[in-house]
């Protein structure tokens, strides 16, 4: 009787031990796999950083080449008036395309999310959405803006403004609040955005968001750092 | 006894000093990890980042090559006025296309928007006419999908284009030209599948228009032609910074 009981206890203990060992092995295995994935993740991180550096180096050499091209072009075009005229047209096109830093009179509009007590009914309205920014840009163009940037991202013809969760994406770069929209153009006309019933009031302040408007005598807007490349569109005569 | 006390104080201050140092180091490390937020990124996000940088790198590389070639031509042909002129014209032409001052052709889509007929409307639907905002959003979606050229009713969209309502939503004005119609034809050149899904994909803007009584249809084509912008591009207020 006593012996049977001992055997039974031993069996239970063995069983428990086996389970414990199995669990232990499984945990170790799991650990191993998380180590594996974090390794591949850190590998990925290294790759991202390497690619970023590669891009930055390439961009630097592009900038150097562009400067060289400008000098060489200026040099060859100085030979006669016809060539000089063409060179001027190229320079003008680059200016209009946002390929140079520009300065002039203009305005800045700082857009920010509202505080929760200003709009209790619809907190969604408190956030600055990509659509809101898009309308401000359109309004600025209507008022004669000739160059626009959002934070440091120059708005060119191919720039899209989209949402990525709660973050706004411009030219593929994420931009958080406060969003500063700068525009160069006739300040008197650009000021129409500020009038009552205008975009800033109707699309921002009424909803509880903030929009701070400022006229500036001399504003600098950085150049576009992306590339114009055309894979589908071909010019036809 | 006094000596022991001094030793004690010195030891304590050294320990305190070390502790502060360690805390500062810890703060710094924590801050650094925050700055290079790459550490907190998930694998999917990292892959996305990698793809983004790669595209940017490749585009930049192509551009570098293009510029090197142009540079080469200028240097090589520096004695011939005719060749130099040709090179300058070639360079200007690519810029002209980017400005939207040339007619362009290529793969793309044509979107038609029209108000539904009475019999097409379901019971809870009623027609809300198309307003400037609709067109602004559509243009932005198309740009996001990589459109290389866009026009609305043959009015080319350039960087300075504004789209506004005139009167009580009777007309829309694009590039200072009035569009007096409720039917719109939007053309875009680019990858036709991307462009299509940017508007007609699930939850896309076409669905929203449909609820507003606007029927949107799309046609893909290998040969969409988009006219050039005919107006002047203003530059009275911008001045180049060197």
Q: Could you walk me through the main structural features you see in this protein, from its secondary elements to its overall organization?
A:
The complex is a heterodimer of chains A (237) and B (242). With 237 residues, chain A is an alpha+beta fold. Chain A has 5 helices and 9 strands. In chain A, the strands form 2 sheets. Chain A has a 5-stranded antiparallel sheet with strand order 3-2-7-1-8. Chain A has a 3-stranded antiparallel sheet with strand order 4-5-6, covered by helices on one side. The longest helix of chain A is centred in the N-terminal third of the chain and has 76 residues, at 2-77. Chain A is flat, with a radius of gyration of 30 Å. Chain B is of the alpha+beta class and 242 residues long. Chain B has a domain at 104-226: 2-Layer Sandwich (Alpha-Beta Plaits), CATH 3.30.70. In chain B, 48% of the residues lie in helices and 21% in strands. Chain B is built from 6 helices and 9 strands, in the order H-H-H-E-H-E-E-E-E-E-E-H-H-E-E. A 5-stranded antiparallel sheet of chain B has the order 3-2-7-1-8, covered by helices on one side. In chain B, strands 4-5-6 form a 3-stranded antiparallel sheet, with helices on one face. In chain B, a hairpin with a 2-residue loop joins strand 2 (149-152) and strand 3. The mean pLDDT of chain B is 87. The interface between A and B is large, with 85 and 80 residues. Strand 9 of chain A pairs antiparallel with strand 1 (103-115) of chain B.
């Amino acid at each position: 009787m006593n012996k049977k009981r001992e055997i039974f206890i031993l069996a239970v203990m063995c069983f428990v031990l086996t389970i414990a060992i199995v669990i232990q092995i499984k945990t170790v295995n799991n650990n191993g796999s998380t180590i594996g994935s974090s390794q591949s993740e850190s590998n990925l991180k290294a790759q991202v950083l390497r690619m970023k550096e590669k891009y930055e180096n390439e961009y630097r050499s592009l900038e150097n080449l562009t400067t060289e091209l400008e000098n060489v072009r200026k040099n060859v075009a100085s030979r006669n008036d016809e060539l000089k005229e063409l060179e001027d047209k190229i320079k003008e096109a680059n200016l209009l395309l946002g390929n140079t830093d520009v300065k002039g009179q203009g305005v800045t509009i700082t857009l920010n999310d509202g505080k929760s007590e200003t709009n209790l009914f619809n907190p969604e309205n408190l956030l600055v959405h990509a659509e809101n920014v898009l309308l401000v840009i359109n309004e600025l163009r209507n008022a004669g803006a000739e160059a626009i940037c959002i934070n440091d991202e120059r708005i060119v013809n191919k720039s899209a403004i989209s949402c990525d969760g709660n973050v706004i994406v411009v030219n593929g770069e994420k931009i958080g609040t406060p969003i500063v929209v700068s525009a160069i153009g006739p300040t008197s006309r650009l000021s129409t955005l500020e009038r009552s019933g205008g975009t800033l009031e109707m699309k921002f302040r009424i909803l509880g968001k903030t929009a701070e408007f400022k006229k500036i005598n001399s504003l600098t807007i950085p150049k576009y750092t992306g590339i114009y490349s055309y894979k589908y569109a071909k010019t036809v005569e | 006894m006094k000596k022991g006390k001094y030793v004690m104080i010195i030891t304590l201050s050294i320990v305190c000093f070390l502790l502060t140092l360690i805390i500062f180091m810890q703060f710094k490390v924590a801050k650094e990890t925050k700055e290079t937020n790459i550490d907190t990124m998930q694998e999917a996000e990292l892959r996305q980042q990698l793809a983004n940088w790669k595209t940017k790198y490749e585009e930049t590389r192509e551009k570098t090559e293009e510029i090197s070639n142009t540079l080469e031509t200028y240097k090589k042909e520096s004695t011939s006025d005719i060749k130099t002129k040709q090179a300058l014209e070639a360079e200007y032409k690519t810029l002209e296309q980017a400005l939207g001052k040339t007619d362009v052709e290529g793969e793309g889509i044509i979107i038609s928007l029209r108000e539904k007929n009475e019999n097409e409307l379901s019971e809870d639907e009623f027609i809300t006419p198309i307003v400037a905002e609709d067109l602004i959003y559509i243009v932005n979606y198309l740009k996001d999908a990589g459109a290389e050229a866009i026009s609305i009713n043959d009015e080319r969209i350039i960087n300075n284009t504004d789209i506004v309502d005139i009167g009580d939503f009777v007309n829309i004005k694009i590039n200072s030209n009035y569009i007096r119609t409720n039917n719109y034809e939007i053309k875009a050149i680019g990858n036709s599948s991307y462009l299509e899904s940017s508007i007609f994909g699930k939850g896309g803007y076409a669905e929203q228009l449909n609820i507003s009584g606007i029927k949107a249809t799309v046609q893909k084509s290998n040969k969409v032609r988009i006219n050039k912008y005919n107006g002047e591009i203003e530059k009275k207020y911008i001045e180049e910074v060197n």
